[in-house]
């Protein structure tokens, strides 16, 4: 009889723990700063992007310049907007990015990763959509290091038989 009583207490405790309540709302609010922005860091190759998002008209600013000026190639701008389009939030958030290191392609990938993480900080219910799209996974591919006795990472010096 005492075992059944302990089991019901444990069951009721677990049910209370699973129910979403005020604690979940507090966790979401903690991920926003005093200005109502969500922050995230994105990385790709040697590039690091610091991204802030807030509700707005859909303006994207990268290093103080408009996205069309900073990323002139349309492919790079498409990469930036992929998580927003997948989540159905294109044009709903103003995005401010600071990017350092690497080239333009790596920087675009870093901003995309940062935007994805910031969207989740702002709206946690978007996580399954962005996860299935592969936007939350850090692309770990980096340049292979140069080895000694070779001119590049894998290239060999020209072989002369005679």
Structure description:
Helices cover 43% and strands 18% of the residues. It has 6 helices and 5 strands; from the N terminus they run H-H-E-E-E-E-H-H-E-H-H. Strand 3 and strand 4 form a beta hairpin. The longest helix has 19 residues. About 4% of the residues have low confidence.
Notable traits:
single chain; 5 strands; 6 helices; 5-stranded mixed β-sheet; 162 residues; alpha+beta; extended
N-C termini distance: 93 Å
Principal-axes geometry comes out as extended
> Which value, in Å, is the CA radius of gyration?
23 Å
- Kindly report the spatial arrangement of strands forming the biggest sheet: 1-2-5-3-4
Query: pLDDT average, as an integer?
Result: 86
Quick structural gist:
The chain has 162 residues and is an alpha+beta fold.
List the helices and strands and how they pair.
Elements: H1 2-18, H2 22-30, E1 38-44, E2 47-55, E3 60-62, E4 65-66, H3 67-70, H4 74-87, E5 93-100, H5 104-122, H6 127-133
Parallel strand pairs: 3-5
Antiparallel strand pairs: 1-2, 2-5, 3-4
Helix pairs in contact: 4-5
